[in-house]
Amino acid sequence: MTRGFLLAASLLACASGAVAAPPADALYRNGIIYTVDARDSVHQALAVRAGRIVYVGDDAGAARLAGKGTRVIDLHGRMLMPGLIDAHMHPQSGGSRLLNCSLDYLPLTVPQFQARIQACLDQDANKDPARWMVVVNWFQQGMQPDGVATSAATLDTLETQRPIIVRSSFGHSALLNTNGIASAGIGAATPDPAGGKIVRDAAGQATGLLEDAAQDLAMNLLPPLTVAENLAASGKALAAMREQGITTFLDAWTDPETMTAFTTLQRQGKLTARAHFGVLIDLDKGATPQQAVAALLKQQKQFDQGPTRAAPSMQVRHAKLFMDGVIAAPAFTGAMLQPYLENKGSAEQPDWQPGANRGPATYFTQAALNTTLALLAKARIDPHIHVDGDRAVRASLDAIETLRATPAGKRVRPALAHDEIVDPADFVRFARLDVTPVLSFQWAKPAPDTVGALKDYLGPARYAIVEPQSLLLDAGARIAYGSDWPVDPLNAWFALKVGVTRTAAPDAGKEYAGTLTAQPGMPRAAVLRAITMHAAYTLRQERLTGSLEVGKLADFIVIDRNFLTIPAEDIANIQVLQTVVGGKVVYQAAALR
After folding, report:
1. What is the mean pLDDT of the chain?
2. What number of other Cβ atoms are within 10 A of residue 581's Cβ?
3. Can you give the three-state secondary structure of 95-143, one letter per residue?
4. Count of alpha carbons within 13 Å of 34, Cβ hemisphere only?
5. Percentage of the residues of the chain whose pLDDT score is greater than 70
6. Is the Cβ–Cβ distance between 545 and 275 less than 8 Å?
7. C-alpha to C-alpha distances, 209 to 139, 215, 330, nearest whole angstrom
8. First vs last Cα of the chain: how many Å apart?
């Protein structure tokens, strides 16, 4: 016997001889096969037949599966590992933003901010004065210098009569110019919508900044993407995923137009990642929990394509709920147990004291959340809940604890996304209640949004536990990874580097040197498991993907260096050489022979 594991139906041994196994379609040898199985075992070779893994073991055993038609790839010592699973992203938004005027997530001064938007206005061939200029990927928390204010006046200096909307990369804020405010019909008497805020000056006039649901006052005026634009956005999103090595994703806030585009690509054979979709449950506009869940199930019936199979398909088995916004300045829409701090002194002699602002009421009342989760559990839909502040985390865990006491509630796999600050009393509840925190590792670094926009407003004790990845891990939580793209650029390898080191990029500047707080980074094996097996678990796909084991679907990637042994800072420089989904090569950066 070899040290490998062969599919029982493929190799039968008996006293009189052996029945030869059918040859493999593809055989990868002479590599570092990192399996992410229960033992994190490492092997030399892997073989694929009919979209599934039929062998993991040594080179000698793999050679027995080579036939005339077998494609044999010598890895030359390169690493082969499970495909990446992104358990929280927004692919259609990410793809469509590649089609818009983009500020590219850059920290900008006000003059730089204005110049880049003016350049987009000048280059746009359609000068219709009524047509909105949409600007995306604004790193609002990174505006320089720290604390600089932006308002409609910032945009009114631009040479245009067009309404302008600048969308924060975080997705929770938008800035309008004065013509945009007028076009949206926002005046002094316009009330804040449920779950949102119109930021106003001392005289009660709108400043141009809209928070959370208030963005809809302008966003609802933008023309929807055409069918062709939706298809183009979906195609660009899939291309970006292939290059990163992402073989499965969850769209964590979808709509019928997005799912229609992905359905078209799937029917054309162009869906190159396993697609899961979370439908928004939104009670802000008057829907009852029963109506909202019924609308979700209608979309599931229309778009869900049944059980996972070798070829990528679509599943609609998740609900997206928002409990709050973001904890960083200037929004302060994260729901906090204790108030944000305010500077009662001056810039020269600061005196940070608790203010009156604990963020908004959670976007679901406790009763509405309990009812909604119970309905979802009965419908066998898993909840995926946005929580940024510790009060939003607490309320969600309380509701899940209530849910777990019901028969249907014992089956659900709830996920809490982001968890940027969690009260220490709640660390152990994730494991006890079997709740998966889905974390964006790239946020756990010194940066404008985690230093200038956060540190003083939280105070030392709370700031010490922001981005509590290792703290939750040590408390027994099953950590999964989600990029939240396009909140940040899609760069899984940089995120994994930050997950291990809690450091920024080398060119981030002196003020962002070192680690974010004294918390340690996560072990390398833990960050890889978060972006493979644990993410697969949240999607109920762990028996088919997430690790390299015989019988599982052949979703894997080949990378150019050994993740486990290279210097930690070098993880960000890893390049994907090949991406394979269901045994089919969907991305090839370099020839592998």
Report:
1. 93
2. 28
3. HHHCCCEECCCCCCEHHHHHHHHHHHHHHCCCCCCCCCEEEEEECHHHC
4. 22
5. 96
6. no
7. 14, 9, 10
8. 27
Q: For the chain, what percentages of helix, strand and coil (3-state, to nearest 5) are there?
A: 30, 25, 45
Give the angle 335-341-344 at the CA atoms, nearest 5°.
150
The Cα–Cα gap between 371 and 409 comes to 12
* Residue 1, burial from CB neighbour count under 10 angstroms (0-12, 13-18, 19+): exposed
CA distance 94 to 236: 8
Strand order in the sheet with 415-418: 84-89, 246-254, 274-280, 314-322, 382-387, 415-418, 436-439, 480-481
pLDDT in tens, 61-88: 999 999 999 999 999 999 999 999 999 9
The pLDDT tens digits of the residues spanning 251-277 come to: 999 999 999 999 999 999 999 999 999
Distance, in Å, from the CA atom of 332 to the CA atom of 348, rounded to the nearest integer, reads 23
Strand, coil or helix: 72 = strand
Under 8 Å CB-to-CB from 516, ≥6 apart: which residues? 444, 445, 446, 450, 466, 467, 502, 503
Distances (CA, A) of 40 to 28, 54, 274, 547, 577: 19, 18, 24, 9, 22
Helix, strand, or coil (residue 34):
strand
CA 555 to CA 540: how far, in whole Å? Answer: 16
Question: Strand pairing of 415-418 and 382-387?
Answer: parallel
